[in-house]
Amino acid sequence: MRQPSDTTTTAKRSTIRRSPWHLPWKLGLGGAVLALLLAACSSSTPSASSPTSSSAKPTITLVTNSWEGSLANNVVAQYVIEHDLHYPVKLLDLSEIPAWPATAQGKVSAVMEVWGHYKHYQTYVVGNHEVINAGLEGPMGSIGWYVPTYLMKEHPSLATWKGVKKDWSLFVTPQSAPQGQFLDGSPSYVTNDAALVKNLGINLKVIYAGSEAAQLTEIETAYKARKPIIFYWYTPQYINAVYHFSEVQLPPFTSKCAALPASQINCAYPPYYLYKIMNSHLPKTAPAVANFIKRFNWTSADQDSVAYAMAVKKESQTAAAAAFVKSHQSLVQSWLSGPFTKVRAPIVGT
Amino acid sequence: MTVAIGNETTLEEAEQLGVDRPASPRGTGGPSVRQTLAKPWVGLVVLAAGAVVSAILTGVKGGFPAGWVPGSISAFSSLGTWITAHQSSAPFFTDVLAPIGTGLNAMVSGVSTFLGWLTWPGLILLGAFSGLAAGRWKTAIFLVVAIAAFGLLGLWADSMSTLSLMTVAVGISVVIGVPLGIVAAFSRHFEQLLRPVLDLMQMLPAYAYLVPIVILFSIGNPGGVVATVIYATPPIIRLTLLGIRTVPDDVIEAGKSFGSNRWQLLRKVQLPMALRMILLGVNQVIMMALSVVVIASLIGTGGLGDPVLQALNIVNVGDAFTAGTVIVLMAMVLDRVVSAFGERADPAHRTSKGMPVRRRRELIAAGFALVVVTALVAKLGFSATNFPTAWSFSVAGPLNTGLGWLQHHLYHYASVPIVGGTSNLSAFVTLEILNPLTRIAGDMPWWLAVFGTAALGYIIGGWRRALLVGICVTGIGLLGVWNDSAATLAQVLVALVMCIIVGLPLGVAAYWWDPVEKALRPVLDVLQTMPAFVYLIPVVLFFSVGNMAGVTASFVYALAPAVRLTNLGLRRVPRDMVEAGTSFGSTRLQLLRKVELPAARPAIVLAINQTILLVLAEVIVAGLVGAGGLGYDVVVGLERDEFGLGLAAGLAIVVLGVVLDRLTQGREQRRPARAA
Amino acid sequence: MSAVASVKDPAREDPTSHPVQISCQHLWKFFGHNGHSLLGTPEANLPQAELQERTGCIAAIRDVSFEVHRGEVFVVMGLSGSGKSTLIRSLTRLIEVDSGNIELCGEDVRHLDPAGLRDLRRHRVSMVFQQFGLFPHRRVVDNVAYGLEVQGVKRAERYQRVEELLKVVGLSGFSRSYPDELSGGMQQRVGLARALAVDPDVLLFDEAFSALDPLIRREMQDEVIRLQERLHKTVVFVSHDLDEALKLGDRIAIMREGSFVQVGTPEEVVGAPVDDYVAAFTRDVPRAKVLTARWAMRPFGTRSDRSSGFGDRVVAASTRLQDVLNMVLQSDEPVGVVDDEGEIIGELDRTTATAVIAGSPLEGDAPGPRAQAGKTHGEGTRP
Prior knowledge:
Chain A is of the alpha/beta class. Chain A is built from 15 helices and 9 strands. In chain A, the strands form 2 sheets. In chain A, strands 3, 4, 5, 6, 7, 8 and 9 form a 7-stranded mixed beta sheet that branches. Chain A has a two-stranded parallel sheet with strand order 1-2. The longest helix of chain A has 20 residues, at 23-42. Helices cover 35% and strands 20% of the residues of chain C. Chain C has a 6-stranded mixed beta sheet with strand order 6-7-8-3-9-10, sandwiched between helices. In chain C, strands 2-1-4-5 form a 4-stranded antiparallel beta sheet. Chain C has a 4-stranded mixed beta sheet with strand order 11-14-13-12. Chains A and B meet through helix 1, helix 4, helix 5 and helix 9 of A and helix 5, helix 9, helix 15, helix 17 and helix 19 of B.
């Protein structure tokens, strides 16, 4: 509380300037803003995204998911759509799940790589036809258990799950103690590993890394120190070209096993036929692009090479895509005018 | 005063919040009849009896009885399914929400266009000019450097799209929040209704409701703005309320005694006097909004979250750190600008002296004209919308190398004397502390947990709090995430202890030595505003996937308030008290132990309270680095379309937060008597 | 307690002959949960501590009745917690009492509708606050103009009025300052000017000068006296400072635990405290400075053996004892006391004078104090 101190009539504080927020001040500010807005509106400089050009050719939006292969698909698709079909393309970072309603709403034109998603397929493709199946992407998604190759060489028995069952103690970590640790991946990926270790009677505890970044960091740390580690992994994945991993054989996948409830699964993961989806209006609004997306089809090795160029060699997206297109002229040509591979494979997974 | 970055409650707020509880505004009387009935031991005996009865009825097994869980997860899931099924048909969705989404998108695009026309030289100049208008050279220089850094680090375009989104989201938060705060300030009933809603908005992780938001408002800007507004609005409501409530009684009385009606009182007295607090609220809104930039990018808003996510995909810490730095800089830029306004709104800084008003206005007008001219010249003359990419450079390479070197020298077993490397430290904490704690918490019989926490609540805050806490703990069980909550609780406790062990001494050091305080301030700012996604990889690098990585991430994020509030609390200890202590010949340590720390107790209790809440806010990140628990459940909810699980775990986080908050809030204080 | 600097001039015109401006009858106010339910119960009259122990409530005002006349300065004084601030706030319903009648300027305050109450506050009554209650975000000029502003007076007009008032309270030249650029005393001058700006009939002072330094406090008290000589407002002044009460008050009400213990002129309160509580309050007051010859004299009429023969040893009845002391002490013979018409109405001798000043009880024949004692309760009248 203030102390009433002096009888004199001097002012006590007088240091900081201030000005009241009075009308003329506001007018000046408002005028300035207005001038700028007017200038913005009256502009006629054409730009790639200005309304006039986009009404003729809509912007094609492709979803980039959280793995580098998804980006590899997109940069190449972007390059071709922009250079050969002359549509503007925007790549949008988006999680897998939101990508479905977004494609249905038309906020997204297409997703170039989809793993499974049976439930959404039923809702949006089979159910309300807001999304259409745009055919296979080419690579076969393969999920399994992996160990670093150096470890496999030291312990050849790890080639099958039986060896893992015997040598589980190699993988003990503080997090999983007293059991061995099985490092699982991003929660967005389908995993049966908890059921597998239980049903196969392996003394491993499944630790969910929670994100691919965390999982990869952990794998790299172990790899550099050449320590034992066993983890969930998949192809296509560019990092497979950097590190050498060997797959552990699980009991073979059978349709009978696939029919079991999730908690009773005791066999390897099914092969994933990676496919593409697009908004159901795309064939009308951008027929050339829709045809291209349907025909787009390449191999795991193709995708890995582009992803590798970007992630490891630090090439820019455009450069990586351009290099690929240049060295794969006939493949690219087949995307523009070739036959269209119909989907035959079942959509699996959740 | 510099307004602290970050979303902690300030000490003043806490003090004031602490005393505005009892309903009777002038009452002194404690309910003495009830007091005599409610001797402490009576309550404890009742609670103990409750525990024994429940134990007999349900058995002494550990955990929460599975049969009691009412299937909340599947109920939430069917809600999600229902929304999906009806999003394109129900009129409410198509006729109300969809146009809102379109409107939001148009607003963001508008701001974006405006920023495009301002051009980068225009924006930098505007920054410089705002600094000068606030009368501060240093701020102006900082603003120029920081804004230029957006471009120099190669992220100009992303920065502009984040800035557009922020502007709209913050604007909407203020437009919604201030009136709500005003209404709440005048109606205790409304405030009581609002309070749990605010807790929910603030503590429910955005992850848990991203999917429905996308379905209802679509991806990109609309969804991003809605998610940001939900998360960022509570502080301005709270601070508006607080600002109006803390206008001194005598001033209100003076206003009333001259016959002001309600509206006059609000407009002429209460709002002007609450302005500083409201601006502090705006500041907090900005900080909160910037902290969800990365999460918003998960639903396609683009902006600075994208480079962070992309860097994570290829495990490139340097890139993530660069983008994170730009987010921090943007937070600081907005903070400085708002603080400058806040200072001028502070009655304590008003003065009749200084530059003549007319001259000032002229200068300001001239400055804006200069900005406009610059923008026009840059735009029309040089088409300089985006920062020239040739000028930008990357710091990612050296950063990655440095981090690699650090990991190499710190991680492995023999690399550090005694401790034996961070991996050993991690192993020790995980094996000896976290795992046992998780087991104990998870295996604890439900009745022991419920009645035990209720007893704690009773000791701290009487029957009402005991009841609330008991209901909340039961609620966690009913949500069906008992064991994951136990894991999260264990992590929260360990992170809290780490924060106390590190934070209190740092706070004391900052109190003793001003240079330490000065040096710590920017570090704490950065720790608190740097998106946690950025240090997701480093914590795994040093502590391996698992609990310890999660705890460390939380610890880093929550350290700031522990240090700040300790320091602030100590600095607030009345001078004469310290002088009295000194005059008896106390040593510095004696003074600290016997005088200063006890006197700063309320601040330290508040520090603990805030730390817990911030740690809880970080459980998502814990989930992303393998610590499991509720955070992982919420992430699964988004990533694997298990909306029910995500929401249940999200709500459990909120409930756990409420429990821990109420158990650390200290006793309710009564407003001092006023009758003369 | 410092020495009394001055006391209300007893010779001043008597305002009690003026019409009643404020009238309060049987006011009650309880604080605490469900306090109003205590009305009319036996508990209501319990001592404060016991009441609080039993019910959790406190009685801030208990059965208080009083009247204030136009132009009168009525001081309510008591220790903190005695209920005086509650009382002054209840006059304009800043606090609502639980029961009783309040009449202010002819208005039945308790039954006014909100508009009527606002009207009363805007035009008839103004208040000056202990912590000044200034608006820190407004310049002095806008602080003082506040009452006019909420009345809807145009800016130019109210600024003109404010300039006049600032001159009156000695603050011209400070209209552009902010309150916290002024010293405490100056701030309260602003508060005073603000209260006067609306030209109210009634002025309420709530411990208005308690927060000021003694020196400035005295200055402000003089200022009030000066203004009151010009403006003749009806004033209710709450204070815990007896000196202030004696200096300003036409009448003083001593308040304790919510009740009026004694209401009377300064002389009555000092010279004839009704109980030990009031006596303890007034013990340190230099009685010679407060009490008059009229108060201490032995009035004629009881033993009218000597109606003349004092020669020039006579004093006016309104003379304070300290001024007659020399004359009285010079001789064993009493001095005569004359009224305004020059008629001798009593005598004062050495023994009586010293006894009155010392405050010691007198035997037998009763001078003023005892003669007046009966009148000091309730509506005090002048001796």
